[in-house]
Structures are given as C-alpha cells and as structure tokens.
Amino acid sequence: MKTEKEKMLAGELYDALDKELSDERLRTRLLLKELNDSREDQVEERTRILNALIPNSGEGLWLQPPFYCDYGSNIQVGDKVFFNFNCVVLDVMQVTIGSRTLFGPNVQIYTATHPMHYKERASGLEYAKPIAIGEDVWIGGSVVICPGVTIGDRAVIGAGSVVTKDIPSDVFAAGNPCRVIRDLEK
Questions:
Q1: Is the overall model pTM greater than 0.70, yes or no?
Q2: Which domain holds residue 141?
Q3: Whether residue 117 lies in the annotated active site
Q4: Cα–Cα dist 109/130, whole Å
Q5: Residue in 114, 120, 136, 141 annotated catalytic
Q6: Quick check: helix, strand or coil at residue 5?
C-alpha cells in the first residue's frame, strides 16, 4: 500500500494532513522563517538555509526574501536562477526550473490542486500536477503558473499573466489566460 507521500508524488489523491507530510511542511516552515528573517549581509547563513531548503539546486540560486514553499525538496533548480521578493512555490509535486531563469516579484507557482467535483473535494483529499519551466525564461511580476504547465526555453511571460496551458519556447506570452503574443528572435 502506498504512503500518502508516494500518492502525492505520483499525482494521485492524497491526504495532506498525513503526519509525515505535516512534519515535512513544519520543517520547511521553520527553514523559511530563518530565511525570511535573515539579513542581507548574512550571505553564508542564507546559503546554508537554501541548501537545506532546496537541496536540488544548482550554483548561484538567489531567493530574495520573503519566499514561501510547501516542501522545497520537490523544487529542481538549475544554475543562476533568481526569485524576486514574495514568490510562492507550492511544490506538492516536482517543479523543474532551468538555468538562468528569472522570476519577478509576487510570482506564484502552484502544483497543488483540488478535485472539481464537490463530494470528492469535501473528502479533504487533494492532488498535484508537475510544472516545468525551461532555461533562460523571464517570468514577469505577479504571474500565476497553474498546475501541469510547461513553459519552454527562452520564453517571456508578461506581468500579471495567468498561465493555464503550456507555452512554447522562444515566445512572448501574456494575459489571463496567458496566450502567445508573438515569436521572439532566437
């Protein structure tokens, strides 16, 4: 029989109140508190916290506090990725971010979702869909990225967009819902 964590990571309905998952989220919240309370001049301390919080990150990850996530361990980050102030990553499932990707302030990345049918939703169970963001992507401020979305390499997502469907590489996309506006030069 699968654990609730195994169900969560498989994209199946799971109980988020499971003790193992609750304990992992508590550990993450404590690390986030340390990160978000740290000072700009505490570079070594921030590096230590980030290594514990997001162990699957490349070189040069910079998160401008405050930053929030569910687990941290489900975030895979390439090199030289930057998150501006007040970003949220609900990493119930894998979030993959390519190298040199930039996030404006208030970006929200949601893998977590809930059943559409009210009876199933009332059970308290939830599920997730992975998100993949390519290399050299620029995500404008206050963008929301919904569960299951893939954003291709070198794409630019305009500020305030709600990304509900996949966005190909080498395009500028914006709006609610986000749609391709034009191709970008390679």
A1: yes
A2: 4-183
A3: no
A4: 10
A5: 114
A6: helix
